[in-house]
Write a structure and sequence with these properties.
By secondary structure, the protein is α/β, with parallel strands linked by helices. It contains 14 helices and eleven strands. The structure holds pyridoxal-5'-phosphate.
Amino acid sequence: MRDTLKQVLDAELPNLVQMDVSALAGVLAERLLGYAPYLDKVFFTNSGTEAVEAALKFARAATGRTGIVYCDHAFHGLTYGALSLNGDKIFRNGFEPLLPDCTEVAFNDLAALERALASRKIAAFVVEPIQGKGVIIPDDGYLGDALALCRKYGTLLVADEVQTGMGRTGRFLACEHWNVEPDMVLLAKPLSGGHVPVGAVLTRKWIFDKVFDRMDRAVIHGSTFGKNDLAMAAGLATLEVMEAERLVQNAAVKGERLLAAFQAMAGRHELVKSARGKGLMIGVEFGPPKSLALKASWNLLETANSGLFCQLIVIPLLKDHCILTQVAGHGNHTIKLIPPLIITDADCDWTERAFDDVIADAHRVPGAIWSLGKTLIENAARAKVG
Ligand SMILES: Cc1ncc(COP(=O)(O)O)c(C=O)c1O
């Protein structure tokens, strides 16, 4: 990867600001479309949220409609268009008014989606195939039926695969799990292997042609650094490595192993309610315990700040075991794991041991974990007073 980037720099081209049609962008577009052969064109951006903005503009231009439908708990980025599709008030408050004509529906609820689409004023339904906040996996028929509803009412289906794409869920695109072929697929995060900011909108030709329909509209949407050579070369190098090291397959195999291990923990530890996931996108959900001693401590923590319990797991996992996890959203009891796609069996052993250790500790009252809980409660109380 570094060598590839050095080669681009050594070529001494004006490689960041694109004044022309970049050959590397063409090659990367072709390679990406190989993974979604039902799509024809790629528009490159500098981030995930910019890919969402482009998709919103493309959908409006292509359909002549203004409405956008998105899901509760959705996260699509934090610029104004993407923020208008955010299903969590905490991100929206203080920044309103947002984009008009955006309607929220419950994820996984086809009847609600149909009610929203039936106005025939909706340009696009924008959805994460698996929601990042909470690691919410849809019912098996949801995305396929959502696509059918979109077709019925003339709405475009936009799959935001910024988090789920590029092998994360054990397929190149998460939509593949349900054989769904959206009208637009959005990629970003891992597309350049973490080296250069980049994003992409993969779309159908007719949609693209509606936007860029005349010479004088050739620059109707774009940005200075979009499709720069460094990002494009990094994207190509990432795909090379992914294919050579069979990382999508690795994500599927290691993900299955980790998920089985976490599901077994749900049987052993009363605080662990369930584990769910696809490939290397896994959520471990915690919930109220049954035993009295634990219940009192859990309730105290919940009263101070809902979802605080997960920090008692996340903090020691990082501090004592060097494992970086994340609480999967505000007020949420799910811890999310999105380990690197290169994870080995030894890494899985280490992860499983660390979780088991930390979770076992959490079942000891009094114990180190609940002392940490007491500190967090005190901090939360101070924050409330402050
Ligand atoms: C599903 C999804 N879409 C869009 C974004 C925004 O991407 P970026 O942070 O590159 O703007 C994110 C970022 O977390 C995301 O998870």
